[in-house]
Amino acid sequence: MNFKHKFVFLFPGLFVLIGILIFPIIFTIRLSLSGWNSYTPEMNFIGITNYIRLFTDDPRFWESFFRLSFLSVTTVILQYVIGFALAMMVWREIKFKRFFRVIFLVPMMTTPVIMTVIWRTFFHESLGPVNDLLGGLGVKPILWLSDPVIAKFTVIIVEVWQWTPFMFLLLLAGLLSLPKEPFLAAAIDGASPLRKFVYVTFPLMAPISIGAIIIRLIEASKIMDTVFVLTSGGPGTATETSSFYIYIKGLREFQMGYAATLSFTYLVIMIISLTIIAKVLTKLMIKE
Amino acid sequence: MKMKTIKTCVTALISALLVLSPVAYADKWSDQFPHIKNTGDIPGECSYEAMSKKNYKGKTLKINTHAVPVMGEPTALHAEQFAKLTGAKVDVTHTPAGDLYAKAMVPFQAGQAPYDIVFGFSNFINDWRRYLEPVPKKYVEMKQMKDVTPSHIGVASWDGVMYQFPVDGDRHYLKYRKDVIDNPKYQKQYKEATGKELKVPTTWKEYGEMAAYFNGWDWDGDGEKEYGSAEVMKKDDLMYAAFYSRSAAYSKNPKTPGGFFFDLETMTPLINNPGFVEALTDWVAATKYVPPGGINFGLGDEIGSFGGGQTLFSFSWDDAFVAAMQPDSPINNKVGAAQLPGATKVWNRKTNSWDEGFNQAPFFVWGWAVGVAKKSKEHEMAFDYLCFFANEANHQADIGIGRFGVNPFRDADFQADVWTQIGWDKDIAQSYVDTLAEMEKSKNRVFPLRVPGTFEFNAALATAAAKALAGQLSPQAALDEAAKQWNDILNRVGKDNVRKAYAVGVAMEDNKQ
């Protein structure tokens, strides 16, 4: 048998890989070196002009990136804590366990854009029910979407509501797959529930926790629909994130070349950041 | 006997004329299409009768339009009618406003035509025109086109070539609650509290004072709080148009023609001059008299807020006014229209100082526009559809429905009778048509920016203004930031390219065409 024949079997996979991953990245890099926009719709070559513009004259991108970092880290930490607590709750033998397991997953099953429209209605400052309810309790109306600081937390609330179930699901699956022996040993030793959690459950859950956190960080760093529907990046630029900014430059202002530059730079930053975060989490959470 | 025969013949002739008259068409077509029940079909090259003689069976017309209801609803309605009349199949795709540009532009640039007809805003014209089929002469010379005002022919054309088929006409003007402003009780109360007259505001300062006074209390006795003003303040939701409206009085100086956005000679951006800064300062103050959450109001919110009776004032497109005047509106026949407020001073860029004295400048903001893709294979059917969309009967029915977003752009629309026939009070109808007609005559007015890179310019300004409204930057710092970005865009696009295109708009602004 000719040794080279085995490469024939690699071609289908290779073609798919090139088609859906390599080609779009190479095309994006090439596009980023062009000035394609509404008035010069062509793949001309302008060298690294777009990259110079990004690194020397576009503070808005970097502001949106740091804002994104704050939003994604905060939401993922909250999702992890709440998701873990809920998973622990239904991991135990409690009444209506199956019902709770299903109900906790409902937010994740809803369509994010539709739900964000509903949240926007809830938080509407003059017509929404949230301020009405607060008013009934004697609390002054809160500027959920109009105050630059509060609007960030409103985005966080919606994101946490929507995606905590995902974290819950992964962590519950992790809890259900844990070996029983360490827990039996802890029980025989008379360990309190808190000590059991700190010295048994949490360390055993560390690998799956890191996986869940990284997956959610990747997803959270692409946050777009919530911001688009809830605040459109406002008030001002207070809730503008990197992906929303790239969308504005690419599909609103039609600066395709520059948007490609932003996308590629963002991709590189995310690969580096997430690799570092994964390593740090592993070091912190997994004790050899 | 002879006399009797003549009488019989005359009666028969009159009967025959009646049968063949437009009224007879009205009966025939309005039975099938209740949308035109008020007027029936009106004879013309693109009337229901004329379209019924066309045969497009087996052909498909593809249209990309805005989401329902604004412009999306009339597009779909007239598509359905057109299909019934001609046998064509009409596919209508609805797209959010923010994506209309890109949804057409991407296939345009790729040399494709997934849509025969594309809806957008009239200020897309400079970017789109190379991909659009000019409106054929036979449509340009039609009777229904002859009635379109010169301003709106100008808006739909570039260098004398019409690329967009006129279906809508837009301008910004002031809307106010007539039942409050004309109310003697409130006039007395306001005088006692402020020492000033309560009247239709003629300056932005008066507008602000009155809006602040009528903010946050129940002045119409409906048990709910009302507020001063509803405005489009949401970034990326046409807020820059609201800012231009507020800036026109302070910055469009009749003594210094030749540019509102740029100085046409030097192409220096003017948007951070003291006139614009004054307007932005007023606007920042306005955040205190809009309804809670008003800083996030898009156009739909503004229409709903003023049209729903929540605020004393509003200014922007016609839709809020027409919505307020619909029979089911809580403030039906309680609203008035007037020119945009002015200012007691206007910035003179030549002398670098304020010129004292009253100044006002109307803003002919862009409106809905529609064109036929050059690469489409169905040019004739596409133009027939557009011509049918805007025929007299459809137009008269459409302009009376606020949510449709179809507004006056024909001389015939500026007759008060058109509006009293649909239930408006005579004085309101008169103030409305007078307001619109007066703008047509103005020699000191502002038209939307229609230059290469329009989106970039407007987005840069909107972002800066939004930062000022949110308190992230002072008005001067925000507009300096916008001006710097405008210079960067100018350098990227090329000053001469922008100048050449801007000159077309400046000629319309100074009403020299």
Brief account:
With 288 residues, chain A is an all-alpha fold.
Features:
heterodimer; A: 288 residues; mainly alpha; MetI-like fold; 13 helices; B: 513 residues; alpha/beta; D-Maltodextrin-Binding Protein, domain 2; five-stranded mixed β-sheet; four-stranded mixed β-sheet; 23 helices; 13 strands; globular
Task: Characterize the structure shown.
The complex is a heterodimer of chains A (288) and B (513). Chain A has 288 residues and is mainly alpha-helical. Chain A has one domain: MetI-like (MetI-like fold). Chain A is built from 13 helices and no strands. The two termini of chain A are 47 Å apart. The model of chain A has no long low-confidence stretch (mean pLDDT 92). Chain B folds into 2 domains: 176 residues, 3-Layer(aba) Sandwich (D-Maltodextrin-Binding Protein, domain 2), CATH 3.40.190; 259 residues, 3-Layer(aba) Sandwich (D-Maltodextrin-Binding Protein, domain 2), CATH 3.40.190. Helix content of chain B is 46%, strand content 12%. In chain B, the strands form 4 sheets. A 5-stranded mixed beta sheet of chain B has the order 2-1-3-13-4, sandwiched between helices. In chain B, strands 8-9-7-10 form a 4-stranded mixed beta sheet, sandwiched between helices. The chains are: A mainly alpha (288), B alpha/beta (513). Chains A and B meet through helix 12 of A and helix 5, helix 21 and helix 22 of B.
Q: What percent strand of chain B?
A: 5-15%
At CATH level 3, the topology of chain A is: MetI-like fold
Shape of chain B: globular
Structural class of chain A: mainly alpha
> How much helix, percentage-wise, in residues of chain A?
over 70%
Mean pLDDT of chain A: 92
Biggest interface, chains and residue tallies? A-B, 33 and 37 residues
- Domain unit count of chain A: 1
Binned, the helix content of chain B reads: 40-55%
Calculate the terminal CA-CA distance of chain A, rounded to whole Å: 47 Å
Q: How many separate helices of chain B?
A: 23
Q: How many helical elements of chain A?
A: 13
Mind telling me which CATH architecture of the largest domain in chain B this is?
3-Layer(aba) Sandwich
At the fold tier of CATH, the topology name of the largest domain in chain B is: D-Maltodextrin-Binding Protein, domain 2
DSSP strand count of chain B = 13
Q: What integer value in Å does the Rg of chain B equal?
A: 24 Å
CATH superfamily caption of the largest domain in chain B: Periplasmic binding protein-like II
Low-pLDDT residue spans of chain B: 13-25
Which strand order does the major sheet of chain B show?
2-1-3-13-4
Oligomer: heterodimer
In whole angstroms, how far apart are the ends of chain B?
Answer: 64 Å
